[in-house]
UniProtKB/TrEMBL annotation:
GO MF term set: NAD binding; NADP binding; oxidoreductase activity
Domain named 3-hydroxyisobutyrate dehydrogenase-like NAD-binding: residues: 214-319
The name this protein goes by in its record: NAD-P-binding protein
InterPro entries per record: 3-OH-isobutyrate_DH-rel_CS, 6-PGluconate_DH-like_C_sf, 6PGD_dom2, 6PGDH_NADP-bd, HIBADH-like_NADP-bd, HIBADH-related_NP60_sf, NAD(P)-bd_dom_sf
SUPFAM superfamilies according to UniProt: 6-phosphogluconate dehydrogenase C-terminal domain-like, NAD(P)-binding Rossmann-fold domains
Domain 6-phosphogluconate dehydrogenase NADP-binding residue range list: 32-202
PANTHER family named in the record: 6-PHOSPHOGLUCONATE DEHYDROGENASE NADP-BINDING DOMAIN-CONTAINING PROTEIN-RELATED, OXIDOREDUCTASE GLYR1-RELATED
Superkingdom of the source species: Eukaryota
Family, per entry: Belongs to the HIBADH-related family. NP60 subfamily.
Pfam families with a match to the protein in the record: NAD_binding_11, NAD_binding_2
Organism encoding this protein: Heliocybe sulcata
Length: 362
């Protein structure tokens, strides 16, 4: 693993902040950027990228965006302006017109399907200049090799895996952490494209495309594990009469990490709206990937097994509530994993107001 993983980014972009020297000055025309996937994260990343590039010297062409539902593209174009966003009619148009194509998608299957369409379009219209494909989704590491086989078979095309750390709130403020693996020259271009426009910090994981994907799953396992411990301690605090609010105060005073503050507040107030956070289906996908990774490397992570069970419990409760027409949210946030701990303790999974208040013993 490269020592540059320890490099941090500040507010500006300089030698100490990005683990690469600045790439050569582009030619007379700025590169055409494409962005595919305008979900909870992708929308904010594409918005910030277009705004940043338009507001800095060096020339600018509108970012070309594509999303399965064109309404997201139209919403983004309306928000930032037609001078900053163009809407693509097909994935083939993005692949052939753009020099740097960024993808941010929901699942491995969707990612593979999109890259197959890129491959088909470029087989028919082979590029004569370099193209860089930047895959920012959370996927299983071996998929990177499959994508590379598709992309590297086309002349002048390179793949960089670039998953990002941070919730939508961090994406909104361009405070994501960007992880890069792949071709060195391509990573230089991507690093200075994404930071500080989209993120605040770069980790370089070297040339092996699988490493960034693996590190992303390791990082997500840290977050999932912390949420599970918090869910269990909140539940114990409620059952013992101490109160989850008191446990949350201790987190704020002693362990004020942003994920704990954010998701702890959600758990405390039963705010499990996945449309404003990280949908539980994505959490279950990530936990499934991590469990597969533990099997591949013979490195047990039993806490993630429990996380997986508790998120499945929460999703099952949600589906039951939907059948009865009493669900509060259309999509659950992954902080709803606390429902698993609550139900195991004989409490209501989603409504802490129904929990009995046990008086503390003298």
């Amino acid at each position: 693993m490269s020592h540059s993983i320890h490099h941090h980014l500040g507010l500006g972009v300089g030698a100490q902040e990005v683990p690469f020297s600045r790439p050569a000055t582009p030619g007379a025309h700025p590169p055409q950027i494409g962005f595919v996937g305008l979900g909870a994260m992708g929308y904010l990343m594409a918005r910030n990228l277009s705004n940043y590039r338009a507001s800095h010297p060096g020339g600018f062409v509108p970012v070309l965006v594509w999303n399965r539902s064109v309404s997201k593209c139209e919403k983004l174009q309306k928000e930032v302006g037609e001078d900053k966003i163009r809407i693509a009619h097909s994935l083939g148009e993005v692949a052939t017109e753009c020099e740097i194509i960024i993808t941010n998608l929901a699942s491995d299957d969707v990612v593979k399907g999109v890259y197959q369409q890129f491959h088909e379009a470029l087989q028919k219209d082979k590029p004569t200049k370099n193209k860089i494909f930047v895959e920012t989704s959370t996927v299983y590491p071996t998929l990177a090799g499959e994508l590379d086989s598709l992309i590297s078979s086309i002349p002048h095309c390179h793949l960089v895996t670039s998953p990002v750390f941070g919730p939508p709130a961090a994406a909104d403020k361009a405070q994501l952490i960007v992880v890069l693996s792949g071709d060195y020259r391509s990573k230089k271009e991507v690093a200075y494209l994404l930071v500080p426009a989209v993120g605040r910090k770069v980790y370089d994981l070297g040339g092996n495309l699988e490493k960034a994907c693996t590190f992303k799953l390791i990082g997500n396992s840290m977050i999932m594990g912390m949420l599970e411990v918090m869910a269990e301690t909140f539940t114990m605090a409620e059952k013992s009469g101490v109160g989850a609010g008191t446990a949350y105060d201790l987190i704020k005073d002693m362990m004020p990490a942003p994920p704990l503050i954010n998701y702890g507040n959600r758990m405390l107030h039963d705010n499990f709206d996945g449309s404003e956070g990280f949908a539980i289906d994505g959490g279950i996908k990530d936990a499934t990937h991590v469990r597969r990774l533990t099997n591949e490397h013979n490195s047990p992570m039993p806490l993630i097994d429990i996380v997986h069970q508790h998120m499945l419990t929460a999703r099952a409760l949600q589906e039951n509530n939907k059948r009865e027409g009493i669900q509060q949210f259309d999509t659950l946030d992954w902080s709803a994993m606390i429902a698993g701990a609550r139900v195991a303790a004989g409490m209501d999974g989603f409504n802490s107001q129904t929990h009995p208040r046990v008086e503390k013993m003298d």
